[in-house]
């Protein structure tokens, strides 16, 4: 296949898999979009598509910084779960139960803390973006 035929086949395949959409928005809105995208390290079009798809999927768009923090929290929670498994193993080995209520109380407090943190971060990010000029 020569280069011309390759390009023709490639463009035909590309056009069958993608759709080009033109969008006209006021310059003030575009500046806000551009600023928000830059904050995420993305191009405005990529950022807009990701937010739009998240909205269609009825999901929450999670900014990259919050996503990294949540990943760190998940890592810490896995460590806590590992520690609990070790406690359970030790309890089964020595046939003496740990204070189950206090462990469960701490887990419930941890769960609430993570939930409050996550919701607070998402609200802060949303509120900050809503108040941008």
What does this structure look like?
It is a single chain. The chain has two domains: 24-61; 62-133. The protein is elongated. By secondary structure, it is an all-alpha fold. The protein is built from five helices and no strands. Helix 2 (27-40) packs across helix 3 (44-56) and helix 4 (64-94) packs antiparallel against helix 5. 0% of the residues are buried. The longest helix is centred in the middle third of the chain and has 31 residues, at 64-94. The N and C termini lie far apart (53 Å). The model has no long low-confidence stretch (mean pLDDT 83).
List the helices and strands and how they pair.
Elements: H1 3-17, H2 27-40, H3 44-56, H4 64-94, H5 100-130
Helix pairs in contact: 2-3, 4-5
Summarize this structure as a short list of keywords or feature phrases:
mainly alpha; 133 residues
When the domains are counted, the total is 2
What is the gyration radius calculated from CA atoms?
Answer: 24 Å
Q: Assign a percent range to the helix content.
A: over 70%
The helix count comes to 5
Helix-and-strand structural type? mainly alpha
SSE string, helix = H, strand = E?
HHHHH
Average pLDDT level: 83
Q: How would a crystallographer describe the biggest sheet?
A: none
